[in-house]
Design brief:
Number of helices: 7
CATH architecture of the largest domain: 2-Layer Sandwich
Distance between the termini: 13 Å
Structural class: alpha+beta
Number of strands: 17
Strand content: 35-45%
Radius of gyration: 21 Å
Oligomer: single chain
Number of domains: 2
Shape: elongated
């Protein structure tokens, strides 16, 4: 056990997995409309267990930061494999960005590996769509009732990291939520990382498998305070009555590690009683983030 600003930090590691990630840049006439599209795009995307994709808003963009000089939002999406990510991009851009007033949509990653997004969505134009190549990149102009929807043809994808995590334990729900909230706020400053759960925080941490064969994941019973006296393998210390988890996805191991580092610092200053992380003994995920290294 280590201590950080008086908070106990368990000498363990977070076990994360390889994922494929993409960055989508949404612009619109106003920041409000860009954010409406981004929130729709990232809806129902907390976990690949049930949503097929994990997504979140990375940061807000000034007009000087976007391709068309308009306010924008940068969004990150992650899926277990490249084909799955390509499908989710087409589905979500088509259903949530194309449909949103005044928006345009651009690739946010200049990488070698790319998938076809705008090239698939162009068919919505029913033959009246048009394309233009600028600086070697093809864009599609799709006629809509408002005017045109501009979307880049191909979007870059990279091998990223999903499932980085921190777990916060405290005397009661108010204290635990305060620590997790402050950690989430600090983590959002890290470029290249997102927190896919509502507000960045999950109260329903899960374990692999279940006593019910149809479920691939179930409640992490060893961290449920109400079960402490009913089970023999509880990891909830006496005096702890609430536990929250933050899951981090990133475009590489570096942003995930940095997000965990700043989150640790913020939660320890807020007064979490204990901070730990979830792993499977190192047998399932190839990325291991040791809390001892992040504390130091």
């Amino acid at each position: 056990m280590m201590r950080l600003h008086g908070t106990e930090v368990v000498d363990t590691f977070a076990e994360a997995f390889g994922m494929w990630g993409a960055r989508v840049v949404i612009t619109a006439e106003t920041p409000t409309w860009a954010q409406h599209a981004a929130r729709s795009l990232t809806g129902f995307a907390t976990s690949v267990i049930g949503c097929k994709v994990e997504a979140g808003i990375e940061r807000l963009l000034e007009p000087s930061d976007t391709r068309d000089g308009r306010p924008g939002v940068s969004v990150l999406l992650f899926a277990p494999d490249a084909d799955g990510l390509a499908k989710r991009l087409v589905e979500r851009v088509g259903q949530t960005v194309l449909t949103c007033p005044t928006t345009a949509c651009f690739n946010g990653l200049a990488v070698e590996e790319e998938v076809d997004v705008g090239g698939q969505l162009r068919y919505f134009g029913d033959g009246w769509q048009a394309s233009k190549v600028l600086d070697g990149r093809r864009y599609w102009r799709i006629p809509v009732m408002e005017g045109e929807f501009l979307v880049e043809e191909r979007f870059g994808i990279v091998k990223g990291v999903g499932g980085g995590n921190l777990i916060f334990l405290a005397q009661d729900a108010r204290a635990a939520l305060r620590a997790a909230h402050d950690a989430a706020e600090a983590m959002r400053t890290v470029e290249g990382a997102i927190l896919p759960f509502p507000g960045g925080i999950a109260r329903s941490g899960s374990k692999v498998g279940s006593r019910y064969p149809s479920l691939m994941a179930s409640t992490n019973h060893v961290l449920c305070p109400t079960l402490r006296t009913q089970i023999d393998d509880s990891d909830v210390p006496d005096g702890v009555n609430a536990v929250f988890e933050i899951v981090i996805d990133g475009l590489g191991p570096e942003p995930v590690g940095e997000a965990m580092r700043v989150g640790l610092q913020a939660a320890a200053r807020t007064g979490a009683r204990q901070i730990t992380a979830g792993n499977y003994g190192g047998k399932l995920g190839e990325h291991h983030f040791h809390l001892r290294e992040l504390v130091g």
